[in-house]
Amino acid sequence: MKHSLLVWSPRLLGLALAAFLTLFAFDGFQQGKPFSAALAEFVMQLIPPAVVAGIVVLSWQRPWLGGVGFALLAALYAIAAWSRPDWILAISGPLLMVGGLFLWSWRYATSPS
């Protein structure tokens, strides 16, 4: 049971985080904005969730990659949003947590039983 929870929790939480970040993309559609401009902004704001989902997919068989990738994303976002500690907590915090879970999953899988 513990092994199953350690294997699936970072993967599912990573995908849930990608879905959460996707919600921010809908900010592009604002009243009075031309559709083409709104669509372009929407697509641009889908890049971060796609990167998060891509890291989950890449780390499916290599959990250490997910740990490093999510920690790196958390650090990059914290640097980019340095003046907004509330944003850092809301975005980098979950990224770092998922990265830690991936590393924990990897360590558990590679440790002698």
How do the strands and helices of this protein lay out in sequence?
Elements: H1 2-25, H2 35-45, H3 47-58, H4 63-80, H5 85-110
Helix pairs in contact: 1-3, 1-5, 3-4, 4-5
Q: DSSP strand (E) fraction?
A: under 5%
> What structural category arises from helix and sheet content?
mainly alpha
Number of DSSP strands?
Answer: 0
Biggest beta sheet summary: none
How many domains make up the 3D coordinates?
A: 1
Broad shape: elongated
Rg calc: 16 Å
Low-confidence stretches: none
Helix content: over 70%
User: What is the assembly state of the chains in this entry?
Assistant: single chain
How many H/I helical runs?
Answer: 5
- The average pLDDT score comes to 93
In short, what is this structure?
By secondary structure, this protein is mainly alpha-helical.
Characterization of this structure:
- This protein has one domain (2-110).
- Helix content is 81%, strand content 0%.
- It has helices at 2-25, 35-45, 47-58, 63-80, 85-110.
- The chain starts with a helix and ends with a helix.
- The model has no long low-confidence stretch (mean pLDDT 93).
Q: What are its keywords?
A:
single chain, 113 residues, mainly alpha, 81% helix
